[in-house]
Amino acid sequence: MRYISTRGNAPALNFEEAVLTGLAPDGGLYVPETLPQFSREEIAAMAGQPYAEIAFRVMKPFVGGEIDDDTLRGLIDDSYATFKHDAVVPLKQLSHNHWLMELFHGPTLAFKDVALQLLGRLLDHFLKKRGEKGVIMGATSGDTGSAAIEGCRHCDNLDIFILHPYQRVSAVQRRQMTTVLADNVHNIAIEGNFDDAQAIVKTSFADQGFLNGTRLIAVNSINWARIMAQIVYYFASGVALGAPHREVSFTVPSANFGNLFAGYTASRMGLPVKQFVIATNANDILHRTLTDNDFSKRELAATLAPSMDIVVSSNFERLLFDAYDRDGDRVRALLECFQQEPTALADAPLATLREKFGSHRVDDDTILEVIREAFARTGELLDPHTATGYRAAEVARSDDTTPMITLATAHPAKFEDAVVRAGFEGAALPESMSDLMDREERYDVLPANARDVQRFVAEHRVASS
Ligand SMILES: *Cc1c(COP(=O)(O)O)cnc(C)c1O
To answer: What are the Tryptophan synthase beta chain-like PALP domain coordinates in residue numbering (predicted)?
Structure first.
């Protein structure tokens, strides 16, 4: 399997190189040159299989023989053994044809665990094989950092440095990162905001001299392995509800669009999907693009669904690449223009997208209303991200007979603020985490200055060769 850039101007890579590389040198994102195809029979045969088995069948063609089957199965089994539910991503029925897929049973209670549990293990495997060590650096305002730390805490060949804005993440989110006391896990609280932390990470990737040749690795959602791991649960839930013998639809609380792009990829691989509904909060670039062809940046709004607070949806570029018939030059031109000024999609690609995608924006007041309403109608306490999906599924679905699967992206205990503001007493953390608030924490506070952070990274990494 070869991976090519969405901007058409970077060398093609194999799977291992694509996973280790992240962003393509031309600024594009890697996508498979051709997608594996699953026949109706192969999809039908997934029904009733354990999640890890479906994961193996779906991901194997993307790995393209670069990892032997036994090893790949081992990485998958270990990744999903960390989930606290035997079904890994259980489905719950909400109404006669609306279902919730709970993606939050992993170690940090959000869907990012599904991908990051596997990505950490994949990176460690490839580095070990090469006899190399690696350093992960990332900035987080919440979910990604903790999921990345949990995915890497057992890796021998990796150090992970996660920067979070000092005193600006919730206690639960901070503690999910800072109570992981493994030697190769380093939490840095930056005296600044999230943008300052992200700028330091960007500077460090642009000039990696401070690492003396050790590889710096990004685990953000543009890494192809994250998309790949997320494709699996679209197949798993689809066959559970009758695919390929009937179509299913999905609603996805969206930000960087990695989750939804995985679903779209599943449909391109043969899963019969009637419709995808994009749910956004007030940061609605995806909704504006689809409804008004307004592909432009707006100022960031801080909402009750903070993991969806974005200005740009980075993985949308992968969808545009297909919508523009995989013409990397046109994608590059469009995105360069987008960086400078408000822009719009060409008619034909926009029309293609509108055939398969619906969208809906849910503001903060509505999020609170939906949390109350969903509880009254179903007994389910939704987290604020999932609440956007619940409402979008009802408003924007194209028909009432196709089963709709809304992706529950986080556990309500992780975003207790919104739950309390909706009028509930709160949501209990699951048993495995009930002592989170009493655990020992470890982190360092550093000024918002790239040089200080880089010196800290160079001095503190333990997995050095
Ligand atoms: C990251 C995240 C999202 C957004 O997912 P994307 O793949 O960026 O679209 C939604 N909900 C929660 C809880 C998240 O952590």
So the answer is: 90-333
- Residue 4 binned pLDDT confidence (cut-offs 50, 70, 90): very high
Report the range of poorest mean pLDDT among 42-56, 110-124, 162-176, 323-337: 162-176
What pLDDT score was predicted for residue 186? 98
**The model scores a pTM over 0.90:** yes
| Radius of gyration for the alpha carbons in the chain, expressed in angstroms and rounded | 21
Beta bridge partners of 138: 162
Q: What is the pLDDT of residues 254-277, one digit of tens each?
A: 999 999 999 999 999 999 999 999
Distance CA 409, CA 215 (A): 31
User: What letter represents residue 307's amino acid?
Assistant: S
The least confident of 50-54, 141-145, 243-247, 332-336 is 141-145
Ligand 1: which of 101, 119, 222, 259 to mutate, most ligand atoms within 8 Å of CB? Answer: 259
Is the Cβ–Cβ distance between 442 and 187 less than 8 Å? yes
- Which two structure tokens, joined as six digits, stand for 262? 């995985």
Residue-level pLDDT at 194: 87
Q: Domain-by-domain residue ranges, the chain? A: 88-106+224-421
Site to probe by mutation for ligand 1, drawn from 250, 256, 406 as the one with most ligand atoms within 8 Å of Cβ, is 256
427 Cα: distance to centroid of ligand 1 (angstroms): 20
Q: How far apart are CA 320 and CA 314, in angstroms?
A: 11
Q: Which CATH number fits domain 88-106+224-421: 3.40.50.1100, 3.30.70.100, 3.40.309.10, 3.30.450.20?
A: 3.40.50.1100
169 C-alpha to ligand 1 centroid (Å):
16
Instruction: Name the average pLDDT for the chain.
Output: 96
Quick check: 382 pLDDT over 90?
A: yes
Measured between its terminal Cα atoms, the distance across the chain in Å is 30
The two beta strands, 91-95 and 98-102, are antiparallel
Identify whether 84 is a catalytic site residue. no
* Contact status, residue 421 vs residue 383, Cβ threshold 8 Å: no
Phi-psi bin for 404: left (phi > 0), alpha (psi -120 to 50), beta? beta
For residue 43, give the 3-state DSSP assignment: helix
